[in-house]
Specification:
This protein is α+β, with helices and mostly antiparallel strands. The protein has two domains: 230 residues, no CATH class; 141 residues, no CATH class.
């Protein structure tokens, strides 16, 4: 499955973050603000399609897709992907950490665009300000405001615990190259529009669309139960286009089975442990398959069946009152996954606490491998991690009110 994201950022959709450049922004901001106000008045007279209306169009298209499509947002947005951009890479630092040699003008970049980009890149001090982990940037020139000039998307992998990627959006400025949009306050530094993709710890993607001739940024933030799609026109002078009061929500349901044993030549040690445990416990394997088929949730994503409070007897030797009261027996959570359901696997005197784990990653290539079943023989004592084969289907799609920004 191909994720249509241009890059991978924070836990929310678009956000405003400051980013200094070696240019004099103070004088440019006054000129930009005047142009911005003029553009705002002009745009207010010409806009006919609102962001909620475009979201409603996308909702109808997603609803028309087969419910069995595990990635309906990707399927629909692929039709509207903006293919008019020009992309290329430029490094600000070499493998040894030293400044990279001056870049060559990429094919397809006009002389005016190249001059604007060189102004944006700035002098030698740019390397010290570089947010990227490796000094490599992926640039895309794309007309984001239908003025006939291409703006700049600056994508940089910034790393960190969450393996973040930042995508900065910069408007074209005739005198100063590429700049952040002007701040509404004339004496404030421009704040770059930035999207962030959290590679490890979230399931997020950014799409650039062109619908009825207009450019849109679509930002998807997902978890096990749903995807939320936020639409914006980040360089629009109209506040109602930079942030929408409505979002598109697609909800999912799953069918889980124990994954077939992998080819021994390709099996990981964890896969081998799972296959060995299942072979040694055929009755519990059958119980696990049966309980997985009974899995159900209510409209608020709360587990309905099997009963999550059905407990195993406390194992002999557990004396600590807190451990004796603990259920389920799983460990504390982690930002890289969610516990989405808890089962009791019982056959005769054998009883295990089993938790379905959904991994959080923007690098996930298939939702068939989204999840695993972790079995615990006692509080905090994991016995085995069993991979699951998962089938994701659309359960519903709706345009709903956006959650207010914190």
């Amino acid at each position: 499955m191909s994720r249509a994201a241009a890059a991978c950022v924070a836990d929310a959709a678009a956000q405003w973050t400051p980013r200094a450049r070696p240019t004099s922004w103070a004088s440019a901001a006054l000129l930009a603000l005047a142009a911005f106000n003029t553009a705002q008045a002009r745009a207010a007279d010409t806009v006919t399609t609102t962001l909620p209306q475009v979201l409603e169009q996308l909702r109808r298209e997603i609803e028309a897709e087969p419910a069995t499509d595990p990635t309906p947002i990707d399927t629909v947005l692929q039709r509207h992907a903006d293919s008019t951009g020009l992309s290329f890479d430029i490094a600000t630092a070499g493998a040894d950490g030293a400044a990279a040699p001056p870049p060559m003008q990429p094919a397809g970049v006009t002389a005016a665009e190249w001059q604007a980009l060189r102004t944006y890149l700035g002098a030698a001090s740019t390397m010290q300000d570089d947010v990227s982990e490796s000094g490599n940037h992926h640039y895309t020139l794309l007309d984001l405001d239908e003025d006939g000039q291409r703006e700049l998307l600056d994508t940089a992998y910034v790393g960190g615990t969450g393996l973040f990627t930042e995508i900065a959006v910069l408007r074209r400025d005739a005198a100063h190259g590429f700049l952040a949009p002007p701040h509404p306050a004339a004496d404030a530094e421009p704040a770059t529009v930035a999207f962030s993709i959290n590679g490890r710890g979230s399931d997020q993607a950014l799409y650039w669309l062109r619908i009825d001739g207009r450019s849109y940024a679509a930002y998807r933030d997902g978890d096990y139960f749903q995807d939320t799609l936020t639409l914006s026109r980040p360089l629009s002078p109209l506040p109602g286009e930079r942030s929408s009061p409505r979002v598109l929500q697609v909800r999912y349901r799953y069918r889980h089975t124990l994954a077939p044993s992998p080819d021994p030549a390709q099996a990981t040690p964890e896969d081998q442990d799972a296959a060995r445990w299942l072979a040694q416990h055929p009755q519990l394997r059958a119980v696990a398959e049966r309980e997985l088929q009974r899995l159900g949730f209510d409209a608020q994503s709360r587990q309905r069946s099997p009963d999550p409070n059905a407990r195993c007897p406390v194992p002999a030797g557990i004396e600590d009152p807190e451990e004796r009261a603990q259920w389920p027996w799983r460990d504390a959570g982690h930002y890289t996954f969610d516990y989405v359901a808890d089962l009791r696997l019982r056959h005769g005197s054998d009883c295990y606490s089993a938790s379905i784990v959904a991994f959080r990653s923007s690098y996930l290539t298939s939702y068939a491998a989204c999840c695993a079943l972790w079995l615990y023989a006692a509080p905090g004592q994991q016995a085995v991690a069993v991979p699951l084969l998962s089938v994701r289907e659309r359960a519903g799609v709706a345009v709903i009110a956006a959650t207010p920004a914190q």
